Amino acid sequence: MSRITDRNTAGIIKEIKRLRESPVKKLVDARLREFSGFKRKQPSSWFSELCFCILTANSKAETALKIQAELGGKGFLSLSEGEIREAILRNKHRFHNNKAGFIVEARRHGNIKEAITKIVSEDGQTAARRWLVENIKGLGYKEASHFLRNTGHFNVAIIDRHIISVLVSHKLLHSRPADLSPKHYLAIENILRGIARLMRMSLGELDLYMWYMKTGKVLK
């Protein structure tokens, strides 16, 4: 792992500042408003978002979005495991058997909105992330952070291969970690937290800019 210094953050801060002065800022701000507004949505929409994040694990977000658009909260909550499996296959998404099973099992927490809102209000966003990892099969730290960010909680980092690649290219990480164990995840999150503090932005906003730096897209 590396550490935050003025010297090794100068490049990434310059790049993010450039993006904040470009049309990309409007895209990022629109996404942040969309995420913030999620807190007003119905429990079925929250469950749909949870299933989307289960689908994204080790898979493409674009095909997960297509499955979510096809099934929605109602489908994720009511279709059989076989029907969900077929939808995953139709969209050429990976791990159809495991992910269909995870989605059906997650129905035990169909009112995920109530559970997460309560934990966040009492113990904070990192506690909510731990609860998600411990209680929702198919979610690791990345997917749990993704779900929280998409439902309007911006104090956790979504660390994927794109974010790691940006950190390595700016020498904020010496190399790609061999694994993303909770220990490694939290260490990298602390690096991102330091950048966010210097930029006076949330981790949720920082993620969108860094993802754009690598992909040229501002996805959810």
Describe the structure using short key phrases:
220 residues; Endonuclease Iii, domain 2; globular
Fold and architecture overview:
The longest helix is centred in the N-terminal third of the chain and has 18 residues, at 61-78. Helix 1 (6-20) packs across helix 12 and helix 3 crosses helix 4. The chain folds into 2 domains: 6-35 and 157-215, Orthogonal Bundle (Endonuclease Iii, domain 2); 40-150, Hypothetical protein, domain 2 (Endonuclease III, domain 1, Orthogonal Bundle). The two termini are 28 Å apart. The model has no long low-confidence stretch (mean pLDDT 93). The protein is built from 12 helices and no strands. It is mainly α.
Radius of gyration: 17 Å
Q: What's the shape?
A: globular
The SS-based structural class is mainly alpha
Classify the fold: give the CATH topology of the largest domain. Answer: Endonuclease III, domain 1
Helical content band: over 70%
Distinct helical segment count: 12
Name of the CATH homologous superfamily of the largest domain = Hypothetical protein, domain 2
CATH class membership of the largest domain: Mainly Alpha
Short précis:
With 220 residues, the protein is mainly α. The protein has twelve helices and no strands.
